[in-house]
Amino acid sequence: MIDSFSPLLYLKLTSGYLSGLNVKTGKLLEEPTVLAVRAQAGKRIPVAMGQAAKQLEGQAGIELLNGLDHPRTLLANFSVAEQTLKLFVRQLAPKTFYSAAPVLVLHPQEHLEGGLTQVETRGLYELSRCAGARKVHLWVGRELTREELRAKQFPAEGGSLLTI
Known about the structure:
Layout: E1 8-13, E2 17-22, E3 28-32, E4 35-40, E5 43-49, H1 51-55, E6 62-65, H2 78-92, E7 103-108, H3 118-130, E8 135-141, H4 146-150, E9 159-162
Parallel strand pairs: 1-7, 7-8
Antiparallel strand pairs: 1-2, 2-3, 4-5, 4-6, 8-9
Helix pairs in contact: 2-3
InterPro entries: MreB_MamK-like
Protein name: Rod shape-determining protein MreB
Organism: Pseudomonas tohonis
């Protein structure tokens, strides 16, 4: 029952870009994985992500960060990546009075040589949950079609669904 009120989001993740599809509405979004933060009272307050963050570059008190840019893994800085993903999800599926937390199909597309470790799998899962996902499916393999996503069919021959 709750699934009918939850947006289903398909997110493709690289160190440089987040691509997303809201499966129910068809809305597509692609943004750089950049987070703009402002130091305030000793804390880093997120201001914007993606292109909006890049436009703030050079402004006084603004720092640009990428929590997904690391030479060995996609998850470089958990808290920065969390805020980036949280803002991205809000753009792709804005909260309404009737909507539940989204279901995410997270599809990492870089640093997959040798497969993801249990630590990486857990990190990506926790990242998605902290960013507001009600349920997380971690997919490694070929890109999924909108029809496969609607039916929640994850083909065995095209990849693998990782579980925690």
